[in-house]
Amino acid sequence: MIKIGVNETMTGWGAAYGDMTWKGIQLAHEQKPEVLGKKIELVLLDNKSDKSETALAAQRLVEVEKVVAVIGVNSSSMSMAQNEVLDKAKIPSIATAATNPLVTQGKPYAFRAAFIDPFQGDAAAKFAVEELKAKTAVLLVDIALDYPVGLANYFRSSFIKYTGNEKSVLGYFSFQTGDRDFTAQLTQIKSLNPDIIFAPDEYAELGAILQQAKQLGITAQFLAGDSADVPELLQIAGPNAEGFMYTAQFHPDAYTHPEAKQFVEAFRAKYGIDPETFSVTGYDAYLILRDAIERAGSVDPEKIREALVSTAFVGARGMIKFDKDHNAIVGVPVIEIKNGKKTFRYLVEPGQ
User: What does each C-alpha distance from 95 to 3, 82, 145, 304 come to in angstroms?
Assistant: First the structure.
């Protein structure tokens, strides 16, 4: 038996993300349950969407469960907390949808199955300026979390670059996780009349923001990041999400190679819903890690780490390799909510 840890947000504010990530991991495990002639046992620990709990879970996976590697976390803040523990223990990890660059920076045992926010922020800004013809933007940001703060900053610098106007970002408005009344911020934003409102926030807050913006008569285009890509967002926002756009890690129409089609068909058959950002990164993370163990021919964590560095694996998003900081080099699909459904708009390829 080969033990692989899964450190995920199964309860707490990130439960929707953890649930979809675990769905993707489970599907991959069902398809490839063995490696090196041995069964793979997944040890799932719930970090309760809390940084301290995440570090404790990582410690337990290393010291009690004796795992050879860890999959998770989908959150940047929590991945950073986990990787402080795992890096010292020299246990390789592969984060799922965590996109802040600091997750892997300076951490030789940390990898991720996602693109990073400098690329995502640049892709969103490029799309806003070149496709949507936006000339001005404002930022509406949850300042309690690393992910929205980082992504907003990358979007801001790229938006200024693409517009060629230092004053194209008209304002920066903030709130904190758990807030549900955004009337004050949205009223000020309405008075500025921007072309784009970039709100790279978690789905619960974002759903409420979209509702309240419609109630206030705001007509600016909302744009967000991959944290918007869960079914719960549409459940909260309902028809208020119509026309909303965001960057994501995956859309079934963005990738049409055989591995993508097989993933989409299997996911739909098992769960009755479409896969998205969190399920695809969980799915690819498991298969990338299994591939590394197979190529290493060993369950020695150091040999697994060395094999991960040279990854060239065709997953649900095509050929996946890691850059020098162990970040997955993959494209960024842009999605629009059209007639209440997620519609693929555009794919920004790496280096484009």
Answer: 17, 10, 17, 15
Same domain, 136 and 235: yes
Q: How far is CA 121 from CA 149, 211, 291, 319, 331, in A?
A: 11, 24, 30, 22, 13
Contact assessment for residue 68 and residue 91, using Cβ atoms and an 8 Å cutoff:
yes
Residue in 245, 135, 115 with CA at minimum distance from that of residue 194: 135
- Mean pLDDT value of segment 248-258: 96
Span 134-161, mean pLDDT?
A: 97
Q: Show which of 227, 248, 269 is a domain's final residue.
A: 248
- For the chain, give the mean pLDDT: 97
Q: How many Cα atoms occupy the beta-carbon half-sphere of 293 within 13 Å?
A: 29
Is residue 318 in some structural domain?
A: yes
Among 263, 269, 283, 274, residue whose Cα is nearest residue 343:
274
Ordered DSSP codes for 216-236: TT--SEEEE-GGG-SHHHHHH
Q: Are residues 219 and 264 in the same domain?
A: no
